[in-house]
Amino acid sequence: MTPAQRQAEAARLNNLGDAEGKQGNHQAALQYFEEAIKLRPQVSW
């Protein structure tokens, strides 16, 4: 995966986490956030 692809995928996962959290699905949100952090640990989410 290129750096640009990693960035895009991390952003997508973060957005999914936000959406799940807003719907009250906190466990699912946490899983998305954890995956985003794995892809881009240097980003301050």
From TrEMBL:
SMART domains named in the record: TPR
The keyword Nucleus is assigned to this record: no
Keywords: TPR repeat
Domain of life of the source: Bacteria
TPR repeat copies, ranges: 10-43
Gene3D superfamilies, alphabetized: Tetratricopeptide repeat domain (1.25.40.10)
Name used for this protein in its record: Tetratricopeptide repeat protein
Lineage: Bacteria, Bacillati, Cyanobacteriota, Cyanophyceae, Coleofasciculales
